[in-house]
Amino acid sequence: MTHRPLDEQSRTVRPHPAEPLWNRPSDPDQVDPAVLGALLHRHGWQRRGGAPGRYGRWTPPGPGGSGTSLLVPESRAFPDCDDLIGEALLALARSGSPSARDVLVGLTVPGDEIHWWRDVPTGPVGAAPWDVEDQLRTAARRMLLAAALATRARLGYYGARHRRPAAASLEHVLIGAATGGRELTAFVPVATGRPLAVRLHQALYAAREAIDYQRATGGMDAFDTAVEAGVSHELTEALVALVRGSSGARIAVAWAPAAGVPEGGATPAEPVEFSPGDLPALREAGARYLREEPSVPVRITGAVVRLRRSGPRGEGTVRLRVLAGAEVPHVRMTLDEESYRIAGHAHLVGLPIKVHGRLESRGGFRRLAAASGVTPVQVDDAERDRLMKSLQENLDFFEEACGGD
After folding, report:
1. 393 and 358 Cβ atoms separated by less than 8 Å
2. 23: confidence class by pLDDT, cuts 50, 70, 90
3. What domains can you pick out in the chain, each with its CATH number?
4. I want to staple 128 with a disulfide (CB 3.0 to 4.6 A). Which of 17, 132, 165, 283 is the partner?
5. Where is region (Disordered) located (predicted)?
């Protein structure tokens, strides 16, 4: 039986709330003309005339935009405001301009936008190698995950800690289409994701300042204080992945016009730039965070999902699915013969166990060192039935519990 790695847990991906609706015009009476104008401007539409203070005529970006235009009132005081907005929304839904979709998404679900730009070489007619776009998407997702982790705790290195809830918080983030591997936009709903956008915004500025300090003085002290702003091993690794193979990269956060600028958010939020010359400092900082993160004393309650030892007696290795006590999904530990026996018996009767130890940073906080005090934990019948069902679904347990490697 093939097992998925710990950091690739299978789960159903829920669609972004805007995805089924982005190409359906919103109700005109629910659209703020000022917000529509701000979104058009943000996504490159040009205002080409109109009566100041009354309405504007907008055309899409690019050389082919002159044949299309939208009339957008500047306020609801303008006569026939709903009719004009309705016509503008319908034209956006039918437009072939990529920016039209971005505008409609911003209207459907008010959200902050995170933009990435990579300066990469291109081939004929602006083409780029197929893996360039994948590199951009991978780096962007790692950066969003690092920001999500930082909304839950300020640590230099997370490993497996907090990863499950952080990954779940990205389910409603919508990623736009990458442009030749050079540009990418993420739409982060204000209702559920604004703390993530704010934390990423602050962490990027703190990382930029720490790099400048290191390059000017040679000292790494600024990276220590930057942890409080959200800089971590995970963020530095994401920045390395973004910049590596390019001649430079920029990231900017644009706040949702309907929600305004959050506390702690700069306006306008200028892009933060990183270059290949920043890579040595970023790599050194990432290694420093990984090296200096201490082990954590914990008291974990978990269900035994795997037992293994080389013979019928002696110490053995146990894997737990963590139920309480640590923000990690699973841990492994080595137990002496008596503790291994207790863990095996608890598993066979459908009981979790409680154990003390130190959660080690080495290996991503997935190993419990100096494990002791293994005791079964009493649970109600419903929970025991659920654990027993889990046992039956993992038939490979019997082979590993009874056999060797």
Report:
1. no
2. very low
3. 28-107 (3.30.920), 111-292 (no CATH), 296-402 (2.40.50.590)
4. 132
5. 1-30, 47-67
